[in-house]
């Protein structure tokens, strides 16, 4: 007599090697963001598109996270420029 539990486990293992599990893939979406707008305006545009069900919520979240990261990068750049300016003024006064 064949152990059916072992047999079903073996079949599951064999099928997992032949046909790996399917992974969900999100469809690419073309999105037009305002060119001259602030990052806040762009994030608002992303939310509007998501609210109109033209964009998956996970895609909207990823885009807003990317915009937030861009804002942090811009902030660091501005702070570096301000520090450089202050250091130059201090060196001129010395």
Report on the architecture of this protein.
There is one protein chain. The chain has helices at residues 4-18, 39-51, 57-93. Helix 2 packs antiparallel against helix 3 (57-93). The chain is elongated. The protein is an all-alpha fold and 94 residues long. The chain contains three helices and no strands. The protein starts with a helix and ends with a helix. The chain has a domain at 29-93.
Descriptors:
single chain, 94 residues, 3 helices
Task: Summarize the SSE layout with pairings.
Layout: H1 4-18, H2 39-51, H3 57-93
Helix pairs in contact: 2-3
Uncertain spans:
none
* N/C terminus separation: 94 Å
Mean pLDDT: 87
Secondary structural class? mainly alpha
Largest sheet: none
Q: What count of helical segments does DSSP give?
A: 3
Percentage of β-strand residues: under 5%
Outline, from the CA principal axes? elongated
In total, how many beta strands?
A: 0
Roughly how much helix do the residues carry, as a percent range? Answer: 55-70%
Give helix and strand order, one letter per element, not per position: HHH
Backbone CA Rg: 26 Å
